[in-house]
Design brief:
About 25% of the residues lie in helices and about 20% in strands. The protein is built from two helices and four strands.
């Protein structure tokens, strides 16, 4: 059985990225004040990939290559107002 990877799209806006990070990542130590902003900028510039996986609960995985497995893309919500 392939594992499911929830890959964050490089087109995601910062507000949505921060909400995902704050909801799913449990911080256990010190971190720079602007860490989420730095990660988002690197993701946006396609320097890194960020994803969530059951292999690393309560954390966001960061890598330089897209992981293997069944991938679901997480992106910003689409505004459907007329």
């Amino acid at each position: 059985m392939k594992k499911t990877i929830y890959l964050i799209s490089p087109e995601i806006d910062y507000k949505t990225f921060k909400k995902l990070h704050d909801k799913f990542v449990i911080e256990t130590g010190l971190q720079p004040d602007e860490m989420e902003k730095i990660l988002w900028e690197m993701l946006r510039d396609k320097q890194i990939y960020c994803w969530f996986s059951n292999d690393c609960p309560n954390d966001m995985v960061i890598g330089f290559e897209i992981p293997k497995g069944k991938i679901t893309i997480l992106s910003s919500p689409v505004d459907k107002s007329p």
